[in-house]
Amino acid sequence: MEQQYPSNEKKIVRDSHTKEIDLINRDPKQINEDVIKVDFEDVIAEPDGTHSLDGVWKVSYTTFTVSKYWCYRVLSAIFGIPMALIWGFLFACISFCHVWAVVPCIKSYMIEIQCVSRIYSLCIQTFCNPFFEALGKVFSSIRVALRKEVDFEDVIAEPDGTHSLDGVWKVSYTTFTVSKYWCYRVLSAIFGIPMALIWGFLFACISFCHVWAVVPCIKSYMIEIQCVSRIYSLCIQTFCDPFFEALGKVFSSIRVALRKEV
User: What is the pLDDT of residue 2?
Assistant: First the structure.
């Protein structure tokens, strides 16, 4: 009895190319949530007693916010699509090399290195362990004791006879406070709004570079460094672990006692 399969059966595969694009949440994995989300309060802050004029503060806030918003939109409109095309080709090449070249090389290396690791470990245990155990007897009689005494005079100390006249102290305090207050208000009234405009453009450029250049570079680096990390870890575990385990027997007889007296 022949089994018939429907020839007109279609498999619907939901691919990443056909899924709907969320225009509201453009950072669903929150990779830039705490990095470039910069508001006016994160850049410009006036502590108590150092306030500019209310009008200057309001205009500076609006200038910074609007300039940062539109500067980023203009930069992304000009360079966003070319950068997306470049990163698309780059990650396609990285993915191809990783799947078809890097991972098979790592798998073949892991198979071969297991045999080398066992032979190397046996050699270290055979020839190095007895030598380092004997060498460790040189330090077997070492005893180390540390004491640290902390007195109150070592922490708190006030000199005597270093007081100015009361009137001079009061006038100096008032002069400093008033001059600092009004000088800051004058400077902020003159340079506050231009500085807010400059910082708005600057943080817009920083945000654009971070979103369209820095983060993709980091992602591509993380893909490649994982392969290097696995190979490097295997080499360290194969050649260094047995040697340092044997070398540790030199210091196996040392005893250290720590005491702290307050």
Answer: 45
Whole-model pTM: value is: 0.58
- Confirm whether 2 is domain-assigned: no
Q: Please identify every stretch of the chain with a pLDDT value under 70, giving residue numbers as ranges.
A: 1-19, 32-36, 138, 141, 144-166, 168-169, 173, 253, 256-262
Tokens encoding 122? 């046996």
Overall number of domains in the chain? 1
- Please indicate, yes or no, if residue 29 is contained in any of the structural domains: no
Q: What is the pLDDT of residues 192-251, one digit of tens each?
A: 888 888 888 888 888 888 888 888 888 888 877 877 777 888 888 888 888 888 888 777
8 Å CB contact between 44 and 177: no
**Residue 43 falls inside a structural domain:** no
What's the domain range around 90? 52-149+168-261
